[in-house]
Design brief:
alpha+beta; single chain; 11 strands; 4-stranded antiparallel β-sheet; 9 helices
């Protein structure tokens, strides 16, 4: 999948994401026009808006920007997450929305554009991992992949060269994605072995790096569960198995 395709998929998801909660309602045209006139200044552009779960507060998605909460007139807004409070505690409603957007965006990526380590038996769950071969904790996570596979967890790697696509690690990731055996090549690179340099047209490394930035990835590994939960940083296999709600003993 090219960067342009990923970009369009991301923007389409942001513009059509289903509202969360019962209170979310779309604005009528006059309300939306008023809000856009007020907020569309200094290069800022509103791409979607709806009433949030908090009465009188509008949830506004800015183009290539954050989700903000605004007055209906657009004369005041705040940047941050909206929480609901109930008997069970606090619920981050903004993060719930981001989780759903991640699910929809990542579902659009072709499996052939990822380097995937699958279980030999039944796949009980899967995770995505934005990765960099030069990252110590990415190397450490990769050592956990056999244990994850043993417990039925598929690992779907996406490229995220922290120093940029043109860096040495970026070129190494390109070599892995272009290799005849990407899984073996990625494993060798993460164990600090040399591999032949390969370059192929339409490799997805640059697109995935850009996508990671747009999804809020700012370090590696960045793990995303099948429910869209973003887990920044390394987690051992036992912790990931627990987060995914799996039983490592009974495999039920």
């Amino acid at each position: 999948m090219t960067y342009r395709t990923l970009k369009l998929a991301l923007m389409a998801t942001l513009m059509t994401a289903a509202p969360l909660g019962l209170a979310a309602e779309p604005l009528d045209k006059a309300e939306l026009d008023t809000l856009r006139t007020a907020l569309n200044v200094g290069g800022v552009e509103v791409i979607s808006a709806q009433m949030s779960e908090m009465p009188g507060v509008v949830e506004v998605q800015l183009k290539e920007g954050p989700l903000v909460y605004s007055t209906l007139k657009g004369d005041f807004f705040i940047v941050g997450d909206l929480y609901s409070v109930g008997p069970a505690g606090y619920v981050n409603l903004a993060e719930q929305r981001r989780d759903q957007e991640r699910v929809e965006i990542l579902a659009k990526i072709d499996r052939d554009d990822m380097i995937i380590f699958s279980p030999e038996g039944e796949t009980r769950a899967y995770i995505y991992a934005f990765t960099d071969v030069s990252c110590y904790y990415c190397q450490k996570l990769h050592l956990e992949v056999p244990e994850l596979n043993k417990n039925g967890i598929e690992v779907r790697y996406l490229a995220y060269p922290r120093a940029g696509v043109d860096s040495v690690p970026g070129k190494q990731l390109v070599s892995a994605w272009c290799a005849d055996n990407p899984e073996d090549t990625l494993t060798k690179l993460k164990s600090k072995q040399s591999v032949p340099e390969r370059v192929c047209e339409d490799n997805p490394v640059a697109a995935q790096y850009q996508l990671g930035q747009e999804m809020g990835v700012n370090g590696t590994p960045a793990i995303i569960t099948e429910t869209g939960q973003l887990i920044p940083g390394y987690k051992p296999a036992a912790d990931l198995i627990a987060i995914l709600g799996l039983n490592p003993e009974s495999r039920q």
